[in-house]
Amino acid sequence: MSLTGKKLGVLLSAKPSEPSFRHGVEFAAAALGRGCDVYLYCIDKAVLGVREPRLQALKSQGIKFYACAYGAHQHGVPVDDAATFAGLTVVSDLVAATDRFVSFN
């Protein structure tokens, strides 16, 4: 089945050292590789991983990569071009605009 043109939203809230963070990143990578438009949002402790090499590689491959600006502030993560830092309104928009939305906690 072709996934080309389908939109997938992925929410990561686990810290980068937890298996669910890695699983979420791998899930997003697999979907991107199958032709999905992937929108990934890091929230809570997941913002600590915005500079992870695998996420940055996915960003350069076309993933739409967002991170919670408030969470970044709370965890001392610099707000820069590592991700598009935004608020929870973006999460709401992604839930509404994607064909599927999954969460890795």
What layout of secondary structure does this protein have?
Elements: E1 7-12, H1 19-33, E2 37-42, H2 53-60, E3 64-68, H3 69-75, E4 84-86, H4 88-97, E5 100-104
Parallel strand pairs: 1-2, 1-5, 2-3, 3-4
Specify the CATH class. Answer: Alpha Beta
CATH superfamily: DsrEFH-like
**Count the strands?**
5
Count of spatially separate domains: 1
Please describe what this structure looks like.
With 105 residues, this protein is α/β, with parallel strands linked by helices. The chain has a single domain, classed as Hypothetical Protein Ychn, Chain: A (3-Layer(aba) Sandwich). The protein is 38% helix and 24% strand. It is built from 4 helices and 5 strands, in the order E-H-E-H-E-H-E-H-E. Strands 4-3-2-1-5 form a 5-stranded parallel beta sheet, with helices on both faces. The mean pLDDT is 96.
